[in-house]
Amino acid sequence: MVVRRVLIAIALLVPLGVAACGNDEPDKGAAEPAATAPASSSPPPVPFVFEVGPAAGTKNLPITAEVETRVSGGKVTTVTLVDDKGKAIGGELRADGTTWVPGQPLEYNRTYTASVTAAATNGAAPETKTTSFSTMARPGGGKVGSGLYLFNGNTYGTAMPVAVEFESDIPEASRAAVARRLFVKSDPPQVGRWHWHSARMVLFRPEQYWKPGTTITVRSGLTGLPIGSKWGDTDRSATVKIADRSLVLDVDNATKKMRVLLNGQVIRELPVSLGKPSTPSSSGQMVIMEKAEQTVFDTRATDGPNGYRVDIEYAQRLTWGGEYVHSASWSVKDQGVRNVSHGCVNVAPDQARWLFEQTMVGDAVIVRGTERVLQAGNGWTAWDVPWEKYGV
């Protein structure tokens, strides 16, 4: 997209200071030199520069087009966008002020007119600029399927990332553009970042776990976004709550115990049995992804003669690869002593039921000291990446 930027600058004329030169004593009869004003320590006002886009007459834009609203020495006060039938489109400015984002996908093969008003901080009169552009015809080709792992109105644990997953690989060249069309707001505000954990999954999290009681509003605005040779499938949105408490399950292979921490305080310790050496549990920072009071583990299709089928109670998923915290009556004698599982965290039935009643999707689970390191993208591995390395 070629954008012609229209700049309006108000130059501020600053008079040059005049320095007097001469002897220590002025000539008798000469006029006393005029006193000079003290130099100001304040920097000069920033010139007012106001740009809008797309350039007037731009054609064939994707329906994810945004109105450019870059301003220095002032701020945008209003933006209006109407289609060629006079219908107004709502939206809002990005936090960095570079663009105004329509609150819904634009329509294909339509013309839009944007009007932007900005006020200068140096006292100059506000400026209003308009531009018009048209969108492309509905494209052919395939769509990239996407999913948002947040369900409107639900409540999640404090470690819950915003998880967006795709049905096919996202090319590296498209990932920044995809992430830019993913919007997260939190109340109270908390700074966060997106990070690609695989070619099909991008996760958003703040530096620390969400503050208890936070409200999170998310929009995945991917309808019609060019992604390689394909197009984004649809917009998705959700508003969710973070629980008013923080719960962390901390599992240590050295002690074969799980500490359950509520708001930072240990409320119970449970003996566990982890994965045996041939099928070790993963060490890392994980998140409870789903819960089921009853389910069936059936590995015969993948493990062949070594596979098994067994009924499981109080299962809490940690990885896509099939690691869970769950009830295991058959390993009670081993719990707290030795590792005998196929990679899961085994807990006694009564303890598993109690634990199941305390947890929710989005609670943090930390496993330490096993023979296997958690693989990036094997589950919601947002917290397993140091903050200084987190970002797109």
Automatic annotation (TrEMBL):
Signal sequence range: 1-20
Gene Ontology biological-process entries: cell wall organization; peptidoglycan-protein cross-linking; regulation of cell shape
Positions of the L,D-TPase catalytic domain: 247-368
Keyword Cell wall biogenesis/degradation applies: yes
GO molecular function, one term: acyltransferase activity
Active site per database record: 326, 344
GO CC annotations on file: extracellular region
Keyword Signal: yes
Domain of life: Bacteria
Pathway: Cell wall biogenesis; peptidoglycan biosynthesis
Low complexity biased stretches: 31-40
Keywords of the record: Acyltransferase, Cell shape, Cell wall biogenesis/degradation, Peptidoglycan synthesis, Signal, Transferase
Residue ranges of the region described as Disordered: 27-46
Name of the protein in its database record: L,D-TPase catalytic domain-containing protein
